[in-house]
Known about the structure:
It contains 15 helices and 21 strands. By secondary structure, it is α/β, with parallel strands linked by helices. Helix 3 (39-56) packs antiparallel against helix 6 (99-108).
Amino acid sequence: LIHFIKRGLIERMDLKFHVNSELFDRLLLPGIPNNTVNFGNIKKLAKLWKIRRECTNQKELHISQTTFIKDALSVGFKDEQMLEAIFILSQHYFSEVKTDNLLLALFLQLIYTHNLSLTRSSSVERLSREEWPRKYENHLAALRPKPVKLHEEEEQLKFLQYRFKDLWSILQEDQPTLNPTLDHLLNPSNTSQDMTFTKVISKADIPMNQVPDFVLARLEVCKNGVLSCIKQGRRLSWPLGDNTRCLETSQPAKMAIDCQKNNQRKIIVINQINEKTLGKFSSTLDGGTVKIHRCKNSFLYLLSPLESLTITKCENTRIITGQVTNIVRVRDCRNVELVTMSPLVTVEASWESSLLVSPPNDRKLREFSDRDFTILVDGQTCGKLEVKPYNVNYKGSGLKDEKESDWKIEPNLVIVNPSLQRSSRNEDLIHVSTEEKQPSKIPFTNINLPNSKPDERKEEDVSETWRQYLEQQDLTSEEKERVEGEVSKLFSRWCRIQ
Length: 498
């Protein structure tokens, strides 16, 4: 008996709980929600749904979008479009939308206000001798702190360490059994893959009132995210094409992958690609969660099917991808052209960009995607966005044929946090057009894409067409040299402009 007790104590000491970073990636709104998204209103909504479950004698309560918005507005939430966006994000992640899932999604939005600080008013400042931080006059104002080098996955850990007991009071309350919704938030380590958070806690036989402290003492940063990819992953050495001759000013690109055996996701980080062209279609990229960060003046062709895609702080870049199964996030970008297929796209703090997007072409996903093809845009931080149908002139890997590039249905466009100030100035936030743009070309003739034939790429092989044209002309050797020189100059000039 003593032996087994000691063994159980040792197992408890080695147990760790890692934050599921994917949950934040999939459920966070584009942009900061309004101040009605607070713990008090979430608590009221949880009590309302608890009473309804008791009245109907149901353990789990499924809910529709209309009912969710109606209930949320009745307890103090505002902005129906924001609530619609939260429901859509939850629907795409959980498939079946239950009340506990929506409570978790609402609670995660509190991470936006977790690190906000209050400045004091001028009247209070006069009564004190200390120097108070102040930016706005005569009122309290919530301000973000100065940016520090702290990764978002570390911010997620700090947020849960500070607010996990609040989440426990909402989801668990006085229930005798653990809420399975917590399995989406925390992943236990040093256990088999089929062991979830609730199974581990039940096996450890911990009293229910001691679970929050037990978990908080063992919380760690996500083990299957960008940080783990950088620290434990392997470096990728994909070949890159140079778009400029000024190579001494460009920094080397940073690319890494984390695909360990026990990891549920394959993370691929592409960072600091400047003045380069990247074309890739491989099993390494297939099904990956791709993070593109700080790329400028580049062309990225990631033609394999992806699990999800995140693009942050990119400028003057064209990105063409294969179909994306879950979600595409665009944040802090400027003058970016994105050509992709995804059932859900979110855009935040981005300007002067084009989105050529359609639902996935995979038959398994098409029925769901065509019904719930949604684009979420933060109205306060975005502007001059253009949305058009996906149009690429290459087949393979689920990429659509250019004949199928038109929309069967238009996307469900949801503007989160619409800016009244911008609308009063008559500035266009987003322009949706059903007109097809000139097909985006994939400038490769030797890339190994399936289901493709040589005659499908005649338009792309411009160099071969030009060579045959020159052979048909009656030119002397001197005239041919002059033509080649002029063409070389024009091509160099075009590269510099692009």
